[in-house]
Design brief:
This protein has three helices and seven strands. Strands 3-2-1-4-5 form a five-stranded antiparallel beta sheet, with no helix packed on it. It has a two-stranded antiparallel ribbon with strand order 6-7. The chain starts with 8 loop residues before the first helix and ends in a 15-residue tail after the last strand. The chain binds zinc ion.
């Protein structure tokens, strides 16, 4: 069954807090960008102030804007029901480090759970080299996506020994009442 504990005020509070921290973090980055470009303008031969500082202001403002837009998009996200239609494991390769000039490749497994919403849209839950979520779902499982907290809930948890926190995604034991990490109620 889907838990009605999703209406617990702890989730709204968790969301408000994470929005707040994202915004504070963006202000810190913005301040660093403004200061960095200001110093560059003062000490380098390439550029002078206030031009350098204006660039810093522009970049800093962009970070704040992105945080505000991300927070707003979470508010508008819809909750929907769906069903697991497929599970796939893909062998993939990627550069060990994005900055590696010698293209040292690394192999990894991409675990995918594919979900079809009742409105006909396809969504994927993916994880690299980690099969925990992959094993948690079976093809045919009914799932609900909680838009405001951007996490999935399985309908039938009767055979499970674990449950994922719907706020912070931490792994918890099914017997537990609250998430060990963020203290939000576990949906079960
Ligand atoms: Zn949690």
């Amino acid at each position: 069954m889907y838990s009605n504990r999703i209406n617990d005020p702890a989730f709204a509070k968790y969301r408000a807090n994470s929005d707040k921290y994202a915004l504070i973090f963006s202000f810190i980055i913005a301040a660093a960008a403004i200061l960095g470009f200001y110093l560059y303008g003062e000490f380098s031969m390439e550029m002078d102030n206030p031009e350098a500082m204006y660039i810093g202001l522009g970049i800093g403002g962009m970070f704040i804007m992105i945080a505000l837009l991300t927070n707003r998009s979470k508010k508008g996200a819809k909750t929907w029901d769906g069903k697991v239609i497929d599970k796939q494991v893909e062998k993939k390769t990627k550069r060990r480090k994005a900055s590696d000039p010698d293209y040292h490749m690394r192999e990894y497994l991409l675990y995918k759970v594919i979900i079809n919403s009742d409105y006909g849209q396809t969504h994927e839950i993916t994880a690299e080299d980690d099969d925990t979520v992959y094993n948690y779902y079976e093809i045919g499982d009914r799932v609900r996506y909680h838009g405001s907290i951007r996490t999935y809930e399985k309908y039938d948890k009767s055979k499970d020994s674990i449950v994922f926190c719907n706020a912070c995604a931490s792994l918890n034991k099914i017997e537990d009442d609250k998430c060990h990490r963020c203290m939000c109620p576990l949906l079960k």
